[in-house]
Amino acid sequence: MKCPYCGFGESKVIDSRPTDESNSIRRRRECLKCQKRFTTYEKLEAISLVVIKKDQSRQPYNRGKILKGIITACEKRPISLAQMEKVADDIESELYQSMTREFDSTLIGEKVMEKLKKLDEVAYVRFASVYRSFDDIDTFMAELQGLMNDR
Using one digit for the tens of pLDDT, what is the confidence trace for 76-95? Predict the structure, then answer.
């Protein structure tokens, strides 16, 4: 495992423990060169998932894309990275627990919006505005009105 700070290839494990969901092991490591500490996660390699895009092309599932979208939507909001990672983890768990291995990208986008709506309404609106490609202010206002009615 290379140190993310100095790139040195050797580190020692300081602490290991299962994550809350018990689907991975969290390891605290210390670089043997610069002595900085960092965290790694060890996960069981699972069956690969496939995402069916709007143009019907297929791509391997990439948790990083989901997390990137969540982070962008939550920018400058009072939401910790741990909360954002939990949203991505929850979605990934739901996908792996289902009986299928192929998912429409729209289903994944809807799951992200559902989780963000509960976490932070502003982040939800930001994500929805990009995901749903609001064409005009009326569509945007209709989404906001729906959010207000749900309150």
Answer: 999 999 999 999 999 999 99
